[in-house]
Write a structure and sequence with these properties.
- With 173 residues, the chain is an alpha+beta fold.
- 32% of the residues lie in helices and 16% in strands.
- The protein has five helices and six strands; from the N terminus they run H-E-E-E-H-E-H-H-E-E-H.
- The strands form two sheets. The protein has a four-stranded mixed beta sheet with strand order 4-3-5-6, covered by helices on one side. The protein has a two-stranded antiparallel ribbon with strand order 1-2.
- The two termini are 29 Å apart.
Length: 173
């Protein structure tokens, strides 16, 4: 009961806390698979992205965050999605766009649904555990080193904001 009340309280405050670990396997934009379990023990910031969105400039912040904390264990995972009809048509186009315009080298999945009945299992698990689902592009989910959702943020929260960096730094200690 106490765990439920804590989860409900944090959810109402805009901070989602999962009751159990979340994980999953994504198809990588590079080919092959990305298994979140291989990053257990490290914090992972999962961000649903889109190439033709007003928030696309946040790629710079995501890469800067990754550059700043990757040696301390942080993984930033970009999950391109066309759920809001603002993604390019192919994985190759997305990959080229991100490399040319933002010099991204952070892990990235193939174009992946993040909402509704076709949502990727990771996003369905996060929603089931926390009630959170992306409302637009560039929503952020911080998964802690233990595989639990630490906190979620909407599109308007910039990747290098103190709200995000404080939570990341707490996970790196």
């Amino acid at each position: 009961m106490r765990r439920f009340l804590l989860a409900l309280t944090f959810s109402l405050l805009g901070q989602a806390v999962a009751a159990g670990p979340v994980g999953g396997t994504f198809a990588s934009i590079e080919g092959g698979q990305i298994d979140l379990e291989t990053w257990r023990g490290r914090p992972v910031l999962v961000v649903n992205t889109a190439s033709r969105c007003g928030f696309t400039g946040q790629y710079d912040g995501l890469q800067a965050l990754y550059d700043r904390y990757r040696d301390r264990g942080l993984v930033v995972l970009a999950v391109p999605s066309n759920d809001f009809r603002q993604e390019l048509a192919t994985e190759a186009a997305v990959k080229d766009f991100c490399e040319v315009n933002f010099d991204l080298d952070l892990p990235m999945t193939e174009i992946t649904p993040v909402r509704g009945t076709n949502a990727h299992p990771f996003y369905r698990a996060v929603r089931a555990e926390t009630g959170f689902r992306p409302k637009w592009n560039f929503n952020k989910i911080l998964v802690g080193a233990d595989g639990q959702v630490v906190q979620t943020w909407g599109s308007s929260t910039r990747p290098r904001s103190p709200a995000i960096t404080r939570q990341i730094e707490a996970q790196l200690r």
